[in-house]
Amino acid sequence: MAAAATSASSSSSSLRSPPFKAPSSELKNPRGIANFGCRAGVISNHNSVLLRGKLVLSCLREEKMDVKASAVVDGITECFDDSMAETKVKEPSVSTILMNFENKFDPYSAMSTPLYQTATFKQRSIMKLCNGLLAKLDKADRAFCFTSGMAALATVSHLVGNGEEIVAGEDIYGGSDRLLSQVVPRTGVVVKRVDTTDLDEVAAAVGPQTKLKIAEIAHANNALLLVDNSIMSPVLSRPLELGADIVMHSATKFIAGHSDVMAGVLAVRGERLAKELYFLQNAEGSGLAPFDCWICLRGIKTMALRVEKQQDNAQKIAEFLSSHPLVKKAKGAGSVLSFLTGSLALSKHIVETTNYFGITVSFGSVKSLISMPCFMSHASIPAEVREARGLTEDLIRISVGIEDVNDLIADLDHALRTGPI
């Protein structure tokens, strides 16, 4: 049943003394409800809600109910119907979880998680709250927040010892490439790089000493599987449900979503593995600071909305780029996509000329971003290796934000058409 609330004056309002005499409203009862009731709440001076108990209206089938509109002033009504069938409670969606995670951390149950600027807590801390929410989103047994995505990956690499192996993809984030190719091998770990879209190649690379591999191949060889889910986020993918043992996120990206914090996440299956990772995080001091946890919790509430909008915008931009006469090749969609112009000069002009795309190596922000990977995120990879992997110098990568997509398309089109031929 819908109930209309009439605005009151700025003076205090209550059910006992409404500021005006409202006319009666006759409400038809077409379904023959035997027992109908309302719970009414009153907002006094627009700053507090007072529950005024339960108003029960008994009525017969097909009879009219006479309700005084003045019974609810500036109020909130919750209606119930005893004849309605019970609604089955299902598992909440990601967007619902993000707005309703349990906040045992705050004794006052604030609607917005408060920040306590302290380095020490008595057991409960905001980091535990952040860990718990991320574990719930990823369907993990436990999750851990780190100072960055790279700190999270470095911690996982310490699970692998001297003489053991890691099988990793060829086309990965430049920072991850640097860690796996230049740092991890110093500990005696062998890192093999393969095309992860070719399962035969992956299987051929796996040996008895391999510790990190792909799902069934991994588990058949008693190895762990780690998936970097930064680009997908828990909104679009939950790798633990698909067989992964560890999921990694750069929470700087879609999870926090506002380019205002650096953070990483590891979500894991199995208590034994979780204890190992917790020990390493604690030993290395790589846990996320309270303020950064608070920033993540604030930003994550809108993650589902942001990701949906970014996906929709990116699809339209991908279609625009695919049909543009000055674009040689476009690859997407997904809110992170790339395209080639066939001209290094033109690509540089586009990156420098756009008005609505910030020049940076990051992605997943509410603001659209643009970069040239060969000169930025993947600059540490040797040129011949980049070229072999299809990363040519004219490659442009964009991360699509939540702006009006027509403005973004017009911005790209202007940059394309005003560049050198």
UniProtKB/TrEMBL annotation:
Listed GO MF terms: cysteine-S-conjugate beta-lyase activity; pyridoxal phosphate binding
Amino acid composition bias (Low complexity), ranges on this chain: 1-14
Record key words, sorted: Amino-acid biosynthesis, Lyase, Methionine biosynthesis, Pyridoxal phosphate
Coiled coil, from the record: none
Keyword Amino-acid biosynthesis in annotation: yes
Cofactor: pyridoxal 5'-phosphate
GO CC terms: cytoplasm
Gene3D superfamilies, alphabetized: Aspartate Aminotransferase, domain 1, Type I PLP-dependent aspartate aminotransferase-like (Major domain)
Keyword check for Lyase: yes
Pfam families: Cys_Met_Meta_PP
Domain of life: Eukaryota
Enzyme class: lyase
This enzyme's EC code(s): 4.4.1.13
Annotated stretches, region: Disordered: 1-26
Any one GO biological process: transsulfuration
Family affiliation: Belongs to the trans-sulfuration enzymes family.
Protein name (Swiss-Prot/TrEMBL): cysteine-S-conjugate beta-lyase
Organism of provenance: Cynara cardunculus var. scolymus (Globe artichoke)
The organism's taxonomic lineage, starting at the top: Eukaryota, Viridiplantae, Streptophyta, Embryophyta, Tracheophyta
